[in-house]
Design goal:
single chain; 2 helices; rod-shaped
């Protein structure tokens, strides 16, 4: 394979982004669906302080 460095770099960048996005989803998914996340969004919408429970 004798591809220009820019083409190879572009492919590596896409693979890196896919890997990062997958890992980010694994980490952030449980956080974003937690009871505290729902409480935070609800409290914000209701313009009140959140009552965090650590869950």
């Amino acid at each position: 394979m004798n591809e220009p460095a820019e083409v190879l770099a572009g492919r590596q960048d896409r693979v890196l982004l896919i890997t990062i996005n997958r890992r980010q989803g694994e980490i952030a998914g449980p956080v974003m669906t937690s009871a505290d996340a729902r409480e935070g969004a609800t409290a914000f919408a209701e313009k009140r302080a959140p009552g965090w429970k650590g869950r």
